[in-house]
Amino acid sequence: MPEGDTVWNTAQALDKALAGQRLTGSDFRVPALAAVDLTGATVRQSTCRGKHLLLRLETADGRHLTLHSHLRMDGSWRTFQPGARWTGGPGHLIRVALHTPKAVAVGYHLHDLVLVPTAEEDRLVGHLGPDLLGPDWNPAEAVQRLAKHPDTTIAEALLDQTNLAGIGNLYKCELLFLRGIWPWTPVRDVGDLMPLAVLAHKLLTANRGRWTQSTTGSLHRGGTTYVYGRRNQPCRRCGTLIRKAEQGDRVTYWCPACQPEPDSER
Ligand SMILES: [Zn+2]
Fold first, then answer.
1. Ligand 1 center to residue 190 CA distance, Å?
2. What's the CA gap between 133 and 25, in Å, rounded?
3. Considering the entire predicted model, what is its pTM?
4. Which one from 102, 250, 261, 262 is the annotated catalytic residue?
5. Distance, CA 238 to ligand 1 centroid (Å)?
6. pLDDT reported for residue 266
7. From ligand 1's centre to the CA of 244, what distance in Å?
8. Catalytic: 51?
9. What percent of the chain stands above pLDDT 90?
10. Which residues of 76-95 are buried (b: 16+ CB within 10 A; e: fewer)?
11. How far apart are CA 112 and CA 84, in angstroms?
12. Which pLDDT value is given to residue 211?
């Protein structure tokens, strides 16, 4: 599942494949952009903010445009050698293909694919909180934004990209386990939020540059998480069976012993 680090890796891979390259063709397969032709535009940079991908281009007549995309749960960008078979998924999931002499970038099941003037990127990403993998990461501001939602559960507050940008469901579950916090704890009862913000940054940074997400230090299949995806398996710390439940529109995994419900302690 794409989280901030996966998006960061994708932005890097696209930058490596496309930056400085001139498009020899573009093929948009979404209605709103079907008539757009970026042939002749030069790719200036591929970057990201939170989980939003920003591909910055300069057209032949000097306009600066940004192609925005979001991976959500199931989207991906893949790059191929010109002439190579596209192996990223079924053809009907392709939303765009960008051709250059050296590489073809194909976007599968992308969401929120829009083209805006680069100067107006803020319309798309200006609402985001501090970016965990951005150059301007600011834990104090992230804590301040989290604290503005005292009644929200901490699990939902961590997923709210306007508080801090980059955490998806896997890191949400793992962070709360590592800090021993019951996922339904209201933000106001968590206590000091700074260690959570600092740990979130540490975990995402550790996974930047590789495609396997691990919070345990292990890259072995089945060993990469403490609680995420481990329903009914023994907690790596205490042996209690990991539980799974719906929370908001996502699922949460937690260890009932390592992350006790506050009331149950009294
Ligand atoms: Zn446990």
1. 19
2. 32
3. 0.88
4. 250
5. 4
6. 47
7. 13
8. yes
9. 89
10. bbbbbeeeeeeebeeeebbb
11. 27
12. 82
